[in-house]
Amino acid sequence: MKTPPPPVPPSTEPGTEGSPVRIGALVPLTRPGWAEAGRHLLAGIELAVHEVNGTGGIDGTPLELVVRDTAADPRKAEAAVDELAALGVAALAGEYHSVVARAVAARADALGVPFLCSSAVLDSLTEQPTPWVARLAPAQSHGWQVYADFLLGAGHTRIAVAAQPSVYWASGTGILRDRLTAHGGSVVELDLREPAPEAIRDELVGHGVTALLLLVGHPEPALSIVKAVRGDERLSEILIGAPAGQPEFTEWAGPSGGHGAAIPFLRYLPERLSPLGARVETALRERLGREPSFVAFEGYDTGTVLAEVLRSQGPDRARIAAAWPHVDVEGTRGRIRFSRVPDIGVRQWAWPPVQVVDRDPADPDRFRTLHVG
Question: What is the rounded distance in angstroms from the CA atom of residue 119 to the CA atom of residue 135?
């Protein structure tokens, strides 16, 4: 039996007359979290909230964003959920790291607080189905199968995977292996207990693979592996991929000394933005001082969905959660609706657009679309 949530003090109940409607935003803003991704995610949510307040808020009541840094730490995120729930937020939003989003979803479910997950993809976001959680990002099984199809279409059937221990990387490895072996491919798992990248180079040569996928942390050991492999003439034809999307960000491209280009990764954007998407892209570029990543669009869509639900349901938490199946909102990347997907315990947008892209070696600021899912 689920333990009922602790009572919220009357002064912090959602929607107290005369007070703003609060949304709790959970984002990684400091290391070891991917801070650049967190900044993009927050910029998107903030832009959406700013626009909502500029048009009268929620029936005349402004939205207030209460931001907490998760730093990629599940325990810190759980504590933030408890704090935000006590502060009376109507809903929670955000998070980039899947293992953190999983902790947030479990705690939100336990406390009865709606959580709209923006950017984390792990299929098993919750252990059991829950009415409290919805997700914008595609499930890992969907996006990573698209990535496997890209590899097969490009003629890569013998793949090596360099993966660090974690639920997220293990899940990704399993998805890739299942998809590739079902179509005649194979996956070799490299031993990362040997810290020297040179050992990985020798294994790649010995196994005769044509593609190496990095399922590891950034900046290390990812950048050291890239530099070591790119510096070996025996591996000049090997493809290096990073399906989790790290090469989207300047933190990847900057320190790599030019080695960060031509590394295919998953990006959740359409081939061409709608008029809404183009307008938001311009506004996000002004906020960020650079081209917005797909994560910034996920943030904007998060704020837009929550504002629409709040307009129709008010700040009552149970009514917000009950409204997930009825969401029908025009987002920056398509029409957003939530449904039940087999083997996924949260309400899911099925599906956002999925691309495989890389950075052009001749112009690293330009992305090339290699495959569309």
Answer: 8
